[in-house]
Each structure stands twice: as structure tokens, then as C-alpha cells.
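Rotation project, supervised by the postdoc (A.L.). Task for the rotation student: set up a whole-complex structure prediction and record inputs and outputs verbatim in this book. Inputs entered:
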Amino acid sequence: MKKAIFLPIFSFLIFVAVLYGLLPPLSKAQSLAGELAKQNIALQETKDYFANLQAVADQLDQNPDILANVAAALPEEFFLPSLMGFFQTTAAESGLLLRDFSYSEASGAPMPENGVIATTSMNSSIKITSFNLTLNGAIASLENFLKNLETSSRLLDVEQMSFQAPSTDKVSAGSGSSQESNSDFVILVKTYSY
Amino acid sequence: MAAVFWALIGCLALLAAPIFIFQHQVTVLAQKKVAIATETEQIIQSNAELSQRISLVSRRLNDFSQLLQNHRLNSGLFVFLSAICHPRAQFTSLSVGDNGSHLTLGLKTENFKTLGEQLLILKSHPQISAVSFTGLSIDREGKITCSLGLNIDPKIITPSLGL
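Outputs recorded:
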């Protein structure tokens, strides 16, 4: 008779033990196991990612020329005297005379008197500096000058170009260019730096 | 009745084992989880310099690639102009627009016939999309001068656009 009293109590205790003692840790263990599997995958991916980065870094170390070329094309700093010297030397080597120039830079360098310049930012970090160069010489020399700019290690874009052939009759027919006479050329060159 | 009673007692006793096992498992899994999180954090921290270096290189290469995509080779324009110029015509001035696809040319020809032929050459060229001319005049020597506006294929100046 006494045992019969305990039957519902024990049944209730078993129910409570299953509900509050067994199911929560079981559920939590399953949840943790799932999270652990995801974390393991993430850890492996992190390891793979850094292994790949290390491999890339090793490749870059083995071929330093790649970055050196990019650094030359897109230097950290804009150094005006060096660049103007390059323009002047290249013009002279191409047979042109650098008559005038104007420039500007983001730091607010003094504007030349005749300067029509724009320095803008292409994206968050690249600084674009524009130069207006006035050159004098033959068209063939201008072509050489442009080729020299294009093959320069520094990235230079000639954005605008204009010239007027002299009024003499020395403009060659059919070639679209003046072979002998000197003309004034105005070109807008853009250069890039950080 | 007694059998049921003892069976329930047995069930209660048997339930204790899996409860303890699962609780222990929860503790172990939680510890493993913390350990993995710590290991991941350590790996990230120990490779922070490498990550920063590669990120910088990546940014530079992306910037360079973007600039190279629009890099202009204006010297190609002279070859193009030589090819489209009539043997009896002369280009006396040139202005290349900011976008690199519009040219303004000064033109001098011997006569109107040559001018017409020059215009036909330009209009029939596959890399020229629009031709306009203004300022038609005759100079003191009887030669015809005018100004031409051309829209040319941007690939002539920016070859990488065709890639």
C-alpha cells in the first residue's frame, strides 16, 4: 500500500529528471558540438589563410622586382624636383625644349603664376598631380617624348594634348605632322603617388 | 506493484548516469571551444604583421592595376593620324580631349575636292564614330582650312580597354 503511494511520486521525479536533468545538458552538448565543429573549420580556414599569405609573402620576397616596379610607378611620396628634372631631361633627349610648366600638389605648394592645375584624389589614398607642360620642337620630337613618357618606370598619363603648327608652309602633306618646323605643344600629364 | 516500484527506482538510478555524462561532456566541449577560440586569436595576432604587409601590397597592386587599366599611350595617335590623312591634306593643329576619345584637328587642303575626299576617308574609317567640321575658310594662298571634330575609338589611346 505504501509503495503504491510512491509510484506517482517516482514517476513525477523521473519526468522531472528527464526534463530538467537530462534534456538540457543533452541539448547543450549537441549545440556545443555543432559550434565546436564550426570553430574547428574556422580555425583550419584561418590556418590555411595565413599559410597562403605566407606563401604569397615568400613569393614576393623571392621576386622583389615586382614590388619595386610598382613602387617606382606609384611611389610613396611625390618629389617635385626629381619629376621636373625627369620631364626636362626627357624633353631635351627627345629634341624638345621645355618652355614652361605649371603644377600643383595636395599639400598646397605655391601655384605658379600661369598655373592651371588640379590635384585630386582618385580614391582614398592615391594623389593625382597634374602638370601642364609647354614644349617647343618638332612633332617627331613630341612623338619621341610621348614614347619616353609611356616607357618610363613611373606611371604617367598624358590626358590632354594640343598644338598649333606654325603658319609657314612647312607642314608636311599626308603625314599629319610637321617634320621640320618647330611648334609649341601644351600637354597635360598626370602622375600618381600616395 | 512491487515490481513497478523497483522498476521506477531503477529508472531513477539509471537516469543519474547519463545526466552526469552529458554534464561532463558539456564542460569538456565548453573548454575545447574556449581553447579553439584562444588558438584562433593567437594565430591571428601572431600573423598580424604578415596580414598588414600583404594587405598593403594588395592595395598597391589593386591601385596600380586600376591605373594601368586606364593608362594612355598617346604615341599611337600619331600612327593613327598618319593613316587617316589624305596625301594632299595637312593636319595643322591637334587637340586631344580629356576623355581621350575626342580629337579636334585643324585641316588644310589644296581644294574642296581634297576636303571632300578627306571627309570621306574619315567617315568611312571603322574607328571613327562621328565627324564634324566647322570654320570653313579659304586662306590667302587659296587653300581650304577648317576645323574637324572626331570621335575616335578610345582603344587607340587606351589599348588596355580592349583587353
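Student's summary: Chain B has two domains: 2-69, 75-158.
Supervisor addendum: Residues 95 and 104 of chain B are 5 Å apart (CA to CA).
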